Amino acid sequence: MSEALKTTSKLVPAARKEGDALVASINGEIDLNNSPELRAALLGLLAKAPSKKIVLNLSQVPYMDSSAVAVLVELLRKLNGGKIFLTDLQKRVQGLLEVAKLSTIFKIVPTEKEALA
Amino acid sequence: MIPSRKLSTPPPLRLKIQSDPATLAATRRAIEMFAAQCGFDETARGEIGLVINEALANVIRHAYQGATDQPIELSAQRTDDGVCLTVRDWGLGVNPLDLPPKKHDPMRPGGVGLICMRQMMDDVHFIKQPDGMLLTMSRSRLRRKAQGAKEAC
Question: Which of the ends of chain A has fewer CB neighbours closer than 10 A, N or C?
């Protein structure tokens, strides 16, 4: 069962609660200019739909920088032992996550479907 | 030995921008385009763009402490086998390489920009100026992946 959630930013065009998971799609290049907007949108969704599991579909994110990484890490810390799944990564985003060694703290899976399985 | 390539030498690129995060996207695209003219492949261009983005973000956040109206000058120049980039600021002049080393903890994301610079460029050098900092970085087209940077340019 899935319940659509209203989002406050075009960087997060769609979000829903699916079972015990908060699922959101992110859209666009994320850098220091708009990462505060992404942070507010994601923390707002988590406040509306508390979850221990977050699935972020990054298929529409061609680029992110360390400020976006900081947002994801902050979100993970808010989960207090919960998990964040990152799916559908583009090559450049995957490269950054590897360099920052973030594959050790996030669950990186090929598709949203697999994250929800 | 450097394989011969028929690349026209692009004129050096010089950009004067303000320390406004809104300038980041256009600036990294300009640098990526320059890297393409220097013969870098798509992956390398993306890494060079990311490194410039991180260098500028560090200047904005640390050297200028978030002020959005301060000057930054960038240059990009083709070298015999790659590219040399410089970033000049007139901020606090702190060399991040002089700060005490911290063990990288993925749960504490600070320092990712510096890690990118060191891993994605061949040489990284912070040169303190009387009124700020000059960062120089270079990368060869022939570098091996994740070779890591020496501290010279």
Answer: N
In this structure, which amino acid lies at residue B65? Q
CA count, 13 A, side-chain hemisphere, A96: 30
The C-alpha atoms of residue A98 and residue B118 are separated, in whole angstroms, by: 14
Say which of B21, B112, B113 has its CB closest to residue A33.
B21
Angle (nearest 5°) at CA A97 between A66 and A30: 40
ipTM of predicted assembly, 2 dp: 0.90
How many angstroms separate the CA atoms of B104 and B122, rounded?
Answer: 20
Which of A64, A80, A99, A101 is best to mutate for the B interface (most B CBs within 10 A)?
A: A99
Q: Are A34 and A61 in contact (CB under 8 A)?
A: no
B122 phi and psi angles, rounded to 5 deg: -80, -40
Q: pTM for the full model? A: 0.90
Tokens 């032992």: give the residue. Answer: A81
- Eight-state DSSP code of residue B60: I
Residue B132 β-bridge partners? B129
Q: Out of B46, B60, B109, whose CB is closest to A66?
A: B109
